[in-house]
Amino acid sequence: MTKIEENTMQEFVDVVRRLRRECPWDKVQTNRSIRHYTIEEVFELAEAIDQEKWDDVKGELGDILLNVLLHAQIAEDEGKFTLVEMIEAETKKMIERHPHVFGNVDAETPEQVKVNWERIKTEAGRESIFDGIPVAFPALARAYKIQDRAARVGFDWGKAEEVWEKVEEELDELKEVAGGENDRRKEEEFGDLLFSLVNYARHIGVNPESSLRMATQKFQNRFLYIEDELDKKNISLHDATLDQMNELWEKSKGKE
Q: Which CATH class is domain 139-204?
């Protein structure tokens, strides 16, 4: 880190500390009271990255850094830990978990790095390979993470084609119960299908959470086009026919 970078970072830290001393809002915050702001900033960063709006990415990263520093300052004010202690602990952890960089362990591929990472965390006293995966994660992201953890210790399908066979099997099972009255069974089979699709996505190198977010945004953009075009024709969305909307839907795809 250059001297300019050190000075810039120190100025930012000083700003956060002054806010905690002098701003009526910042003074009363706790780690719990600002946690939802932190979560929101992460989602806003993800959206900016997906849209490749790099000025927005820069801003959102800054907001996340602000949240990190504010959380650390609150913890320091309450005697839990200091910013320096947090950074020292993270630095130590990164060195310990990258022995292929800072030690003499071989790891030539990203997959080998993942395997080593899981072994190190297990040796450090983790009770389960799933420790550290929050229950509050979005469902698709949690399914992906759990499957990935299991795969790192060798519990995985061999090929993507095998996973697709499982997807088709789960789809057939869902079709069998879809027309019935057992809502619990429908929910269970639909969940199994989603879980299998997440597994297939992982095997073909697709992140299901990002993929669904992109598909949802694409749908929204196309439907907004329908709304705009209907508005130009003074047709209410509620009065438009399905044929009219489908025609505009097809036109919207040509605008992408």
A: mainly alpha
